[in-house]
Design brief:
Layout lengths: L4 H23 L16 E2 L5 H9 L6 E2 L10 H16 L5 H14 L3 H13 L4 H8 L9 H16 L4 H35 L16
Antiparallel strand pairs: 1-2
Helix pairs in contact: 3-8, 4-5, 4-7, 4-8, 7-8
């Protein structure tokens, strides 16, 4: 069907209006979200924290003495936040996984919990670690694993079994042990769960991604 010039003009106007409405709807936060944290709880300031919580600010430096980042909401219980930091250091920094496998495991865990904050932080790290953009696209958009190399497919399949199916298939587990050994397989679990825990905090407080950043919850 061919539109007349007049009809084309109105089609362009309607399309522009639709796009503007979508952008407005996406940028408008629900009434129960704090405009700074973009979540149901505000960020904690140094004056709100006990001594243990204030020590976290030394790790997550802030000019305005406000705790942001992956521990922002766990820090409402400073002991929990410190335990999560210790878990991260043991699983990620002290683990046996190579950067490629580790970063892909992180992205999988973020995707499975729609954890946009760390996804946006680690997508660049994943590319730097040698993960191909098409592999990231498979994770981001929950696409089939067809055409992926053995190791990348194994990481993604393991995470989908773990978080989505809540049951790791024997073949999936066996392949992981073959590729990374027994400890390496448990390090995959540790890395994924480290980021998933923070993801669950984000789910609880309905944390939204900053404008212009990837919002995993909007991707089916």
């Amino acid at each position: 069907m061919t539109l007349s010039p007049s009809s084309q003009k109105w089609a362009v106007i309607l399309l522009a209006a639709s796009v503007s409405f979508i952008v407005y709807a996406q940028s408008k936060l629900p009434a129960d979200l704090d405009p700074q944290s973009r979540a149901r709880l505000p960020y904690l300031k140094k004056s709100d924290m006990d001594a243990k919580g204030q020590k976290l600010l030394e790790t997550f430096a802030s000019k305005d003495d406000t705790l942001r980042g992956p521990l922002a909401f766990a820090a409402y219980n400073s002991g929990v936040a410190q335990a999560l930091l210790d878990l991260h250091n043991a699983a990620v920094t002290g683990g046996t996984l190579d950067p490629h496998t580790r970063e892909l495991a992180i992205l999988v865990a973020c995707r499975e919990t729609n954890y946009s904050l760390e996804w946006n932080g680690h997508e660049a790290s994943a590319l730097k670690a040698g993960i191909e953009p098409n592999v990231i696209d498979v994770v981001r958009n929950n696409r089939p694993l067809n055409g992926l190399n053995e190791k990348d497919a194994a990481v993604i399949r393991f995470g989908r079994d773990l978080f989505h199916d809540k049951k790791v298939d024997s073949a999936t587990f066996g392949k992981a042990v073959e590729l990374w050994g027994k400890r390496g397989t448990m390090d995959v679990v540790a890395v994924m769960n480290t980021y998933a825990v923070s993801g669950y905090f984000a789910i609880a407080v309905n944390e939204r991604a900053p404008e212009g950043k990837v919002d995993l919850s909007a991707i089916k």
